[in-house]
Amino acid sequence: MTFRDTEKARYRTLKANLFSSAACSPGSYRGRLRPFCLADGHSAENLYESLREDAIAYFRDRRIPWHDGWPDREGKGRALPSNHLCCSQTACVNALWPLVQDSQLLAKVFRPFIPELAKPLPFDADGLLSDGTVPFLAFEWIGAKNYLGEVSWGTRGANATSADFSFRFRRYDGRVHLVLGEWKYTEYYGKKVKDPESINRTRLRTYREAFHHWKASQPDLPPYHTFFVEPFYQLMRQTLLAQEMERGGSRGAGEMEADIVSVIHVAPKANQEFGKSFEAAPCLSRYGRTVGAAWTQVAPEDRFLSISSESLLTLIEQVASASLRPWTDYLLARYGWWRGGMEIH
Q: Do the domain assignments include residue 303?
């Protein structure tokens, strides 16, 4: 069984402990009733109760569509989260939402992975939250301008290179550092090697100039067309977006005054199918045994960090205050696949 299969099976028995009885019936997903989905009309319960209203409002106010989302009562499409319990987008929001307003918690969570983190900075470009405060962490960030020249750029989380989460901080050396984060859960890829002639010409044209900037500093990179298979296509685009944000799109200062822009990749160590996604790009396997290890070698120096979901979620539990115990209990009961048998207090 794949990691995705085991998570789907785990949710069948976990549902009753986490969701309302009405939500526990099989839900519709791509034309079929699925036991690992929440019942129709209950997709909002895919988000932890205490953050649910604020997170939905955040996405609505910024016109960010939820992946495989559901319409709200007014019929607005994808205004509510997916009902699929293995959704990585809702997993990311469930795990990181409290960091949006709590800069101290953000520092405690990420400083062990980024020792240079001195002080989180407000994410001003994201606008104000519904309570009038400025967030310290943003979701589905695409940048203040179209750095990569993407044709359908403009909607966060759709049709453009987006960071699942993003935050900025002052380093101990005084420089401003912007992080673009990617959050994986049960995804995995196993496509055949692509014929270069079959790659979408618009995509090839869109990222070519930024790739040439990258290759100018790393001449030994694999050929451009090698990266046009998942998950490396996404990693390439995020790396290029970080590069261009740091360059300021060839004009002016970096994105939000950033001196450094890097990518953080969060994925379950247990998801070995994702970790070994080299079938479509075998030449990249020489850089490392897992996707994270390989990309650490491929990416520009000190501009990529791979973190296991297990280590990040465990750290969140350790550093969160006692008042956040209900939330951390929920996180580890729901996403603590490696621990088993946990209960919500």
A: yes
